[in-house]
Amino acid sequence: MATTEIVKKDSSSIFRLLDKEDEKTGQKMEGVSQCPFYDEKGSQDHFARTKAHSKAERNAIRKLIPEYLITQFIKDAEEQGKVKKIDFCQCHTPRPEPLAKEICSTCHKVIKQ
After folding, report:
1. Is residue 80 part of a domain?
2. Residue 110 lies inside a defined structural domain of this protein
3. What is the pTM (predicted TM-score) of this model?
4. HEC states along 55-111?
5. Is the separation of the CB atoms in 74 and 66 below 8 Å?
6. How many domains does the chain divide into?
7. Is residue 14 over pLDDT 60?
8. Of 38, 16, 74, 99, nearest to 4 (Cα)?
9. Which of 26, 35, 44, 86 is the most buried (most CB within 10 A)?
10. What is the pLDDT averaged over residues 35-63?
11. Under a CB-based contact definition with an 8 Å cutoff, are residues 64 and 23 in contact?
């Protein structure tokens, strides 16, 4: 796949705009993303540039995949037993695990966001 890329930075974020072209069909799609240089705690995110690039690329490629193929992939995975149902935490006040904040330390299930 051919790629054209535009990068723009301001004081707080990096923006990526990617054009991906399917060389077989000639179809072109645009992927856009923004990633802040600092997280919600004010710590610098050293991977902001990489994240912005990866997200923009993913968004462009995703647009090139026909919806019927994605639906078929999901259906096939379900039929092969590769899809797992997730039990969510039902605790009145979930207590996140110290090293895995998405898991409740009381019931050990996923905390619904």
Report:
1. no
2. no
3. 0.60
4. HHHHHHHHHHCCHHHHHHHHHHHHHCCCCCCCCECCCCCCCECCCCCCEECCCCCEC
5. no
6. 1
7. yes
8. 16
9. 35
10. 89
11. no
**Does residue 27 fall inside a structural domain?**
yes
Which of 18, 20, 54, 19 shows the shortest CA–CA distance to 35?
A: 54
54: enclosing H helix or E strand: helix 48-64
- In 3-state terms, what secondary structure has residue 39? coil
Torsion angles phi and psi, residue 10, rounded to 5: -125, -165
In a domain, 35, yes or no: yes
Q: Which phi and psi (to 5°) does residue 43 adopt? A: -80, 140
CA proximity to 108, closest of 87, 78, 92: 87
Domain that holds residue 46: 2-65
Nearest to 20 by CA among 35, 5, 33: 5
Confidence of residue 4 (pLDDT cuts 50, 70, 90): low
